[in-house]
Amino acid sequence: MKRRVAILVSGGGSNMEALLASMEGDHPGEAALVLSNNPDAGGLRRAAARGVPTIAIDHRPFGKDRKAFEDVLHATLEDHRIDIVCLAGFMRVLGSSFVERWRDRMLNIHPSLLPKYTGLHTHERAIAAGDEVHGCSVHVVIPELDAGPVLGQASLSIQSTDTPDSLAARVLVLEHKLYPLVLRRFLDGKTDRVDL
């Protein structure tokens, strides 16, 4: 029986599209829902065009009441009988109570070779530090930001001509390969790390 996967996005959803494409055909996961905190997210339109159910839960009306937003988010995922949550450019830090409800059932892709450069502006930080290698990581989400067990990484060499934008674009290509691979392995019960 296929596991029901929800993908959470805030923007265009290119990683979402890579995950959706990977779940076509013989796959242990089923794309059951794409959800966004941004009603105008391009990812919602892209998912709908593929026939995947979509929901927007705008975080702004909740103001500073993060828990109220997360309670609605959790209830929505439960209503859709979601088994696994994939964060794919979901630009909200989720609180510990929400994360605990989805412990060992929520993955995230992050644009750095964790534990380096948690949080934002990872490409700028890698260039500024003079790093020779950069990449992306898929990890299990825990309450501490970008600190969960790493299930996979993909890396590339930083070129002397790289800008943060060019580096981000090259890393994104790796993200589109790594995330579907790790999700499939995770759904098959494999939690050993894979590197590309």
Would you give an account of this structure?
- By secondary structure, this protein is of the alpha/beta class.
- The protein has one domain: Rossmann fold, CATH 3.40.50.
- 35% of the residues lie in helices and 23% in strands.
- The protein has an 8-stranded mixed sheet with strand order 3-2-1-4-5-6-7-8, covered by helices on one side.
- Strand 4, helix 4 and strand 5 (106-110) form a beta-alpha-beta unit.
- The two termini are 29 Å apart.
- 38% of the residues are buried.
- Catalyzes the transfer of a formyl group from 10-formyltetrahydrofolate to 5-phospho-ribosyl-glycinamide (GAR), producing 5-phospho-ribosyl-N-formylglycinamide (FGAR) and tetrahydrofolate.
- It catalyses: N(1)-(5-phospho-beta-D-ribosyl)glycinamide + (6R)-10-formyltetrahydrofolate = N(2)-formyl-N(1)-(5-phospho-beta-D-ribosyl)glycinamide + (6S)-5,6,7,8-tetrahydrofolate + H(+).
- Keywords: Purine biosynthesis, Transferase.
